[in-house]
Amino acid sequence: MEQSIIETLSREQLLELLKIYAKNWLAHDGCWFLAIEKKLGIDKAIELDRDSWGQFTQIEARRLKEFLNLGECSGIEGLKKALALRLYSTINEQFSKVEGKNTLVHYVKTCRVQEARRRKNLPDFPCKSVGLIEYSLFAKTIDNRFDTEVISCPPDITDSDYYCIWKFILKD
Description:
Elements: H1 11-40, H2 42-67, H3 75-84, E1 94-98, E2 103-108, H4 112-119, H5 128-142, E3 146-152, E4 164-170
Antiparallel strand pairs: 1-2, 2-4, 3-4
Helix pairs in contact: 1-2, 2-5
């Protein structure tokens, strides 16, 4: 049986392909959003974006949870590992810091979506309502004991060094 082309790629090529796949995924998300916005307006596009992300984030979290063998109550360390492997992680600079016993803060330093808008002289996309659904459901899918809070996210940026900051609190 003949090898697939992917099986013949070097480690460096596979890592580059991973970035290409992530960029393609994000470009598709943007194209989908802009098509809805054009036909139905920004408010309806954001509403549908929340619905879409509410579904997708749980699928992504379940697959990462299984890949990492996290189990049902993996807590702070499980969430930290899963966040580090999201599709975003290959194209956005981000990191998570444990703060205290039950808190994880996730920082997004670069955001391809917002950077593209800024290059086009467009205002930041007001992604807070979408992000709250996305990050809350992602965390709860990893471990249902998490509550999620937004610290900074467009349109409410409280720390200009980051595009967004999320806080995850593990409840006992």
